[in-house]
Design brief:
Blueprint lengths: L1 H14 L4 H16 L2 H4 L2 H7 L8 H14 L2 H13 L5 H17 L2 H18 L4 H12 L9 H9 L5 H30 L12 H24 L4 H19 L5 H35 L1 H12 L3 H18 L2 H18 L4 H15 L7 H10 L7 H20 L2 H9 L5
Helix pairs in contact: 1-2, 2-14, 4-14, 5-7, 5-13, 5-14, 6-7, 6-12, 7-8, 7-9, 7-11, 8-9, 8-19, 9-19, 9-20, 10-17, 11-18, 11-20, 11-21, 12-13, 14-17, 15-17, 16-17, 16-18, 17-18, 18-20
Length: 430
């Protein structure tokens, strides 16, 4: 009864439009009240607090702040010019530029929706002038921004490292690099083919920006992921300390190098990042309560046993898990999916002896696809709003990108070394 109540209240609240945090918290509290004793009810507040009272979680608000600082400091605009200097004028060139800039910005923000908003604001007007339909532009940028969940620093991978004992965040960051690049290539290829087939970008500027001046202007932004990953690799600082260094560097670039930010902008960035971080932390807190209720009641163990009973083949079970995560990614954000599903999926991964670093990256790739797959694709929602088109108008273009990205994910399933080669090369435990 309590297990059914846990799932039923959660689904019912989502269906009526309740926020994800409210749905998780009320479902967990209701299940505890019905299925456990009064002493357990008194643990609700303690468990909700314990879910966020973890030192590594400090990195999340700091990386959120980093992404907003680089967005406001004009880094995205300079990266666009630099990417145009690399790609040059060609059919589909601006769409490729948008993908490259999303990947670079993902190495600073760690958030797909933030990445999508920053790049769409700059790129969509330029792409419209060059002859790209709004629907196509919104689809490409939404798909490209999903690589932020793979390319470090990824907020979702930070949460995964905290929830899965024995995983090294540095190894997860390294493992996400090559799959993130592969995902970017999987977006670029159909983008070029569709652009040439439909003659998109016929009005693109024929003058390529000068390479060296554009590189010089983009260097401060390009150095951000180098500083983060280089510091982690050298052992100079921990992932949490890396987030602090990234924030300090972002303010340095915005205030002193590009000088696009004033003290009023600093206050606005701090306030906006605090609001975004508070939403994430509330979700994490109440999802922790949901996970504790499910674990205590045995709901996740029962569900895991049911999935394991479907087939004894690890590949079949993995495909079922991937389908489940894809549907979850259509309606939930990446952090929430990790928080809700990991108590269920970790025992399954252990039963089949899946490498947990590889599995974390696979989850990230799957959730990335969900971020631009309708009906409730969070990245596509952002870009569709900015381009002023209904989400359903993007479906003919999005489906090509979903298919291509799913093919990239299949390659990582079949060849785990795509994810594990780099962390092993760097000497991390995987």
């Amino acid at each position: 009864m309590a297990t059914l109540l846990l799932i039923g209240v959660f689904v019912a609240l989502l269906l009526i439009g309740a926020p994800i945090a409210v749905s998780l918290g009320l479902a967990g509290a209701a299940a505890v009240a019905v299925g456990l004793d009064l002493n357990s009810v008194g643990m609700i507040g303690t468990n909700a607090y314990a879910s966020i009272a973890k030192y590594p979680l400090i990195a999340i608000p700091l990386f959120v702040l980093t992404g907003m600082v680089f967005d406001r400091s004009g880094v995205a605009g300079r990266l666009v010019v630099f990417a145009q200097a690399i790609v040059g004028p060609r059919r589909g060139g601006l769409a490729v530029v948008a993908t490259l800039v999303c990947m670079l910005m993902g190495g600073m923000s760690g958030s797909g929706p933030a990445d999508a908003a920053a790049v769409a604001t700059i790129m969509i007007p330029s792409m419209m002038r060059a002859g790209y339909p709004r629907e196509f532009s919104a689809s490409v940028i939404a798909a490209s921004a999903s690589t932020a969940i793979l390319i470090p620093p990824s907020i979702a991978l930070i949460v995964y490292s905290i929830l899965v004992p024995g995983t090294d965040l540095r190894a997860l960051f390294a493992a996400g690099v090559l799959p993130g690049v592969l995902a970017g290539v999987a977006i670029i290829l159909p983008t070029l083919l569709l652009s040439r087939r439909h003659d998109f970008g016929a009005a693109e500027e024929q003058q390529r920006p000068a390479f060296w001046p554009s590189l010089r202007d983009a260097v401060p932004g390009l150095l951000a992921p180098v500083i983060i990953l280089g510091g982690l690799r050298s052992g100079l600082f921990t992932p949490t300390e890396a987030a602090s260094v990234a924030v300090a560097y972002g303010f340095l670039v915005g205030l002193l190098v590009y000088r696009n930010m004033g003290w009023a902008d600093v206050w606005k960035v701090l306030a906006d990042s605090a609001e975004t971080s508070a939403v994430i932390m509330v979700i994490i807190s109440l999802a922790g309560l949901f996970a504790w209720a499910g674990s205590t009641l045995g709901a996740f163990d029962q569900a895991a046993q049911a999935i394991l009973a479907v087939s004894g083949s690890g590949l079949v079970v993995l495909i079922l898990v991937m389908i489940l995560l894809l549907f979850a990614g259509m309606v939930l954000d990446g952090v929430s999916i990790y928080l809700i599903t990991l108590p269920l999926l970790v025992p399954i991964a252990a039963a089949f002896h899946w490498n947990l670093t590889w599995f974390g990256v696979l989850m990230a790739m799957n959730i990335a696809i969900g971020q631009f797959t309708p009906p409730v694709a969070v990245n596509l929602m952002v870009t569709a709003r900015i381009s002023r088109v209904p989400m359903e108008a993007t479906v003919p273009w999005v489906l090509w990108l979903v298919l291509s990205m799913a093919t990239a994910m299949l390659l990582v399933i079949l060849f785990p070394e795509i994810a594990l080669w780099l962390p092993r090369l760097l000497g991390y435990r995987v």
